[in-house]
Amino acid sequence: MTEVNLSNVIKDYGKTRAVHGIDLGIEDGEFVVLVGPSGCGKSTTLRMIAGLEDISGGEIAIGGRVVNDLPPRERNISMVFQNYALYPHMTVRENLGFSLKIAKADQTAITKAVDEAAGILGLRDLMDRKPAELSGGQRQRVAMGRAIVRSPDVFLFDEPLSNLDAKLRTQMRVEIKKLHQKVGNTIVYVTHDQVEAMTLADRIVLMRDGHIVQVGTPLELFNTPVNTFAATFIGSPPMNLIDGVVSGSNTINLAGGLSVPVPSRVRGLVRDGQKVCFGFRADNLMPVGHSVEEEGEKHELELTISLTEPLGTETLLFTDVAGNEVQAKMLNPRPVRPGETMKFQLMLDKCHVFDAASSEAIRG
Amino acid sequence: MTRRRLPEWFVLLLPAIVVIAAVVLIPLVFSLYSSFTPYKLTRPATLWKWVGTYNYEKILSDGKFWAAFGRTVLFLTIVLNLELLLGLGIALMMNKVTWGQRSLRTILMFPMMFSPILVGFQFKFIFNDNIGLVNNVLQSMGYNAALPWLVDGKLAMFSIIFAEVWMSTPVFAILILAGLFAMPRDPLEAAKVDGCTPIQTFRHITLPFLMPFIYIAMTIRSLDVARAYDIVQIMTGGGPARRTELLWTLMSRTGYVDSRMGLANAMGYVSIILSILFTIYFFRKLSAARAQIGMAG
Q1: Less CB within 10 Å around the terminal CB: N or C of chain B?
Q2: How many alpha carbons lie under 13 Å from residue A168 in its C-beta half-sphere?
Q3: Which residue of A has its CA nearest to B191?
Q4: A325, A237 in Cβ contact below 8 A?
Q5: pLDDT per residue over B248-292, tens digit each?
């Protein structure tokens, strides 16, 4: 059983605080992804778990054992680095077996573990090559293999896919997920790519400026973002946000002269004159006749198309609402010309209302 | 009547050929030729007398030459290894310095900036048995004898080695430091996570990466030390009684003191073999080390 627990973990670099007292419990066998923009403290947090950075305050426990002052080698973790960090002077076989050799495991055990890892990752044909003779994807697999060989309590991944090209990245993403299903260890994974976070994670930890913004399953973060940052960071394309003012108890007047009814979910939670941010995803704004017929509150809007992005099964329609770019999605698309005015259906019960002052979601 | 013109490529290469001939080729051919004559500086006519391999036969059966040859190899071995160890240590420590490292690097290189002649004079004074610094310190600490640093054979060798190491350790330190700067950080962190103690990390990760840099320094320094002359000449003059005689002091004595230039040149050609062997050895090691860390190609 290997849980990882962070309580009030702080990291200071000189006078700047990079991580502001993080609390996080990771369960045994869970795949947790730390995601956020660069400089949000996610890599620092991972490196503190690894023991590569000292912590300035708080407590980190792995498997119930406080590891604050233990060097990395005593934490029984393994880590996959962004730049692979393979040992350039060793062959793939030696790279894979290095940690066991250092641990003075006997030769047959090393051979067995290395062979097993090589089998899982399809490295058997590359065993006698040096890292310089491998492609990026192969190096990444070796780096993962090196992590598996030790059968650690926790795997740590530090942006492992960001040096790969798009196609390879998708492929490796699947391999990492398969790997997790196969070995079932606890994984902490850092990325700045929300798609990776969404596809891989059991739970996502969204970070910004050294704070945790939201923790939850990918769908929780997608469907119920706690604030405008979470709303725009998770999901592609990002959520449309339009400023507005509540008028009476049932209407929100949006910038640009549009107005929408207050979704019934938040009715009674907003007051007359409150400044808000009205948010909805492109999937919830669809041209009439091109949407999946759904039950629920709807509101019709008429908007003028400024740009289209055909993607095959769907087309993204860009419209302009008082200087805000608003994206809508058209399923079963027909050709649309810029300048065309279309009627749209807004799925009101999927819309979000955020308080403009605090950016926090208003939720019933 | 058509004038024959030199081919164009030859004309274009001519300046280079002239320079190389003047600087390298003629001295080389001349010295090689004179090693087959009984050429004496005081009697130029001897240059035209051909004695075949007489000089070489004489050298190869000469105990003094072989003693100097062996002593040079010994000197080379001790000096290179000491400089490597000290240079490595200094570089590793320098790499940890976070404040004032640039200034420290400059200060580190001071010994290299002195003329070897001056270093020789300085150490000759330091190791002088009457007025030298070392003996003074020893005496003020209660040791009541004047050690004959430059007179006793073994001590004299030690003193020369000390001076040579003092002057040239920075070469190793700087080259190894350059290697440390070029070293990627990731594998070091990976090694930490993989369970290495600091010593294991050094042994398995850092050192293999530094080996090419070490061999470059070795090559440069082996050529340097093999022609060690100035410090030795100043400090002991090859003495006392030839106990610190190295190849080059022997050669200069033969050539300029005894004026037997033909013989000295023959010695030069024999001892060049030593340098060539060292260079080949270190270059082999260098390319092997480069291939090992994936730098070759």
Answers
A1: N
A2: 13
A3: A99
A4: no
A5: 888 888 888 888 888 999 999 888 887 888 889 888 988 888 887
* Confidence at B87, pLDDT banded by 50, 70, 90: very high
Domains defined along chain A, listed by start:
4-233 (3.40.50.300), 240-362 (2.40.50.140)
Q: What pLDDT digit, counting tens, does each position of A309-342 carry?
A: 998 888 999 998 877 889 999 888 888 888 889 8
Q: Rounded CA gap, A280 and A283, in Å?
A: 8
CA dihedral sign of residues B145, B146, B151, B152: positive
Quick check: A103 and B189 CB within 8 A? no
**What's the Rg (C-alpha) of chain B?**
24
Interface touch A88/B197, C-beta < 8 Å:
no
Alpha-carbon distance of B110 to A42, in angstroms, equals: 45
Domain ranges of chain B: 62-292
Which positions 249-308 of A are in contact with B (Cβ < 8 Å)?
Answer: none
| Bridge partners, A245 (sequence order) | A253, A275
Which among A52, A85, A131 has CB closest to B294?
A: A131
CB-based contact B195 A73, cutoff 8 Å: yes
d(CA A5, CA A1): 13
Assigned CATH for B62-292: 1.10.3720.10
Helix (H, G, I), strand (E, B) or coil at B149: coil
- pTM for this prediction: 0.78
Give yes or no for a contact between A35 and A192, defined as CB atoms under 8 angstroms apart.
Answer: yes
